[in-house]
Amino acid sequence: MRRRFLKQAVIAPLALAGTGNAAASRQGSAPLRLGLTPVFLVQRARLLEQWRGYLGNAIGRPVEFVLRGSYQEITTLLLSGRVDAAWICEYPFVRHDDALRLLAAPIYRGEPNYRAYLIVPRDDDTTDWIEDLSGRLFAFSDPDSLSGYKLPRYWLREGGRDPDAFFARSILTWSHRNSIRAVADRLVDGASVDGYVWDMLERISPEVTARTRVVLRSRPYGFPPIVTPAGLSLRTSHRLREAFLAMADEPDGQLILEALGLDGFAAVEPSLYDDVRAIADVMEA
């Protein structure tokens, strides 16, 4: 049943075009530009090249990855049509879903969901973060991040606290990885991060996560999705969606998924993000 579900269902600006992709050798094929943000630990040239090649062959045209250092930059590129698709945070998606088309969501540990983690240094005695981190130093990742910014501020607001006055000082790290390292190095007393990123960093750099401790794991939220501008042709959107959905059944796709720590991609309904919409309604009021 799980297999059927899968079938149905701070970094410098950079564009990776690469060579060796059969689709890229076709004369006259304009590349499909796919945006990525630092939320994903895919800053490895070999993996990006393999993924680019897989997607290009699957959709029959070359693919470029366009990387930017903030969610807002990628969102702006999407809304202006300067990228054809992107893997974005769910918070920008729900704020602009009238102008975006939802293609697919990653499947992580069997579900299209992830959790936010509230972390502190390993030897910190924090047990109740809302009480114990008051007046201390805190790291936020990106102003448009649900797990790394909006959610902890929402929790404080719902608890009757002023998010702008709760901490003595807060910093923006511009990536969950940077936030985790800031906590590990005791540059800050706590941070709220994407649990998927923490889990992946535990796998590839356990010496970093070992110097942190998870105080709180949030309820599940819809995993950051793959989206396109609403104006992208339906034919291109369909081909791209099918390429993502087929990854779990293709040997090359399986290798990429393993490196990403994902089970696959699935078609999902916009209602997956209703809880995020409710938070956005409160935070943007």
Assembly type of the shown chains? single chain
CATH topology of the largest domain: D-Maltodextrin-Binding Protein, domain 2
Helix content: 25-40%
Shape: globular
Q: Give the end-to-end Cα distance, rounded to a whole number of Å.
A: 41 Å
How many strand segments? 14
How many H/I helices?
12
Order of helices and strands: HEEHEHEHEEEHEHEHEHHEEEHHEH
CATH class of the largest domain: Alpha Beta
The CATH superfamily of the largest domain bears the name Periplasmic binding protein-like II
* Rg value: 19 Å
| CATH second-level architecture of the largest domain | 3-Layer(aba) Sandwich
The structural domain count equals 2
Secondary-structure content class: alpha/beta
Care to describe what's here?
- This protein has 285 residues and is α/β, with parallel strands linked by helices.
- The protein has 2 domains: 2-112 and 223-277, Periplasmic binding protein-like II (D-Maltodextrin-Binding Protein, domain 2), CATH 3.40.190.10; 116-218, Periplasmic binding protein-like II (D-Maltodextrin-Binding Protein, domain 2, 3-Layer(aba) Sandwich), CATH 3.40.190.10.
- 38% of the residues lie in helices and 21% in strands.
- It has 12 helices and 14 strands.
- The strands form 3 sheets. It has a 7-stranded mixed β-sheet, sandwiched between helices. Strands 9-8-10-7-11 form a 5-stranded mixed β-sheet. A two-stranded antiparallel sheet has the order 6-12.
- Helix 2 (45-59) links the parallel strand 2 (32-36) and strand 3.
- The termini are far apart.
- The relative contact order is 0.20.
- Mean pLDDT is 89; it is low at 1-28.
